[in-house]
């Protein structure tokens, strides 16, 4: 397969990207319509309907991601060994689609936790093979553009899903500050349609590409993947320790007085910014380097998170959450393209599995720390709603310093 390597405009080059990039992007578009309709209001369902405290919500979110993290590692390795990305990705999307209807019947936080876990198992199975499929289908000169397009489609679906949820909430309880049980269950039912379309799109639209096989056992393959990759993983780990679940941002908005309709509109605008920034940021990373774009994204994250900690009113949280989309657009897809730059081609699936496993493993302590800093445990009441965000801002700044001074040194030595 031939790919253009000369200078190009973002729009014209995006249209010439391979079929697999478009198939995966459309799949993510549909799945995020489904997921974001439900998952963004799930913390409100837990807090408002089931009466769950933030430390338990943090535990649910952390366990959901961490229990799936080893599957991300294993599925990446397995896709390398079987020399197939598509089949594992389809299975993962199917599991998530099958899990979603059970949210309709959930009556306890433990039931919600089990369903959330099943949904994340599906994500754990699909993520590394899907990312490797994109990387295998594109040349190095357009890698940032391809991952940027994928993130743009992903967040475009998220924005549409939020707008659908917003319409349902507006019709059912326009002025309410807290989420109603009936409203939540209606949204769950609607989310089943795009979830099914996501599975069909990938199953019918994507094609496997030839890859080299590996017969090593699944592991956090730091030695085989090289010192620069390992160093980047350490830095990412520090950053992720302060990057708790976005559920805490939703709860912060409600704590500052934003209504359910306002929260959904806020997250929709966030996804609009994320969508608009992702593809240009990916293309920019092809020209000025991934590391520079990631550093810029993390610096922006530190400023916005500090703002969340200092916010006094609902409109301030609202505005900060919209600006938060710049961080996602600049850093998320570009980080995945950077993984492909650092890892050997034959171990690309393992590299993505390792990367996603580290993020997933750290989601648990990050979310538990955030919950404890906010509301404490037992007789200790914590430091208040600002604390998790100040902590996240500080962790991000430390990670930026390591990206500036430590990673280049390791790359030169390598």
Tell me the total number of β-strands: 0
**Cα shape:** globular
Percent of residues in beta strands: under 5%
Taking the alpha carbons of the first and last residues, their distance comes to 31 Å
Query: What is the count of helical runs?
Result: 16
Structural class assignment: mainly alpha
Helix content: over 70%
Report the biggest beta sheet as strand number plus sense, adding barrel if it closes: none
Low-confidence runs of at least 5 consecutive residues: 1-8
Give helix and strand order, one letter per element, not per position. Answer: HHHHHHHHHHHHHHHH
What number is the mean pLDDT?
85
Overall radius of gyration = 20 Å
Question: What features would you describe in this structure?
Answer:
Helix content is 78%, strand content 0%. The chain is built from 16 helices and no strands. It has helices at 10-15, 19-39, 42-49, 54-82, 86-99, 109-136, 143-173, 181-205, 222-225, 227-241, 247-255, 260-288, 290-310, 314-342, 348-375, 387-413. Residues 1-8 have low confidence and may be disordered.
Q: How is the secondary structure organized here?
A:
Layout: H1 10-15, H2 19-39, H3 42-49, H4 54-82, H5 86-99, H6 109-136, H7 143-173, H8 181-205, H9 222-225, H10 227-241, H11 247-255, H12 260-288, H13 290-310, H14 314-342, H15 348-375, H16 387-413
Helix pairs in contact: 2-7, 2-8, 4-6, 4-15, 5-6, 5-8, 6-15, 7-8, 7-12, 7-14, 10-15, 10-16, 11-14, 12-13, 12-14, 13-14, 13-16, 15-16
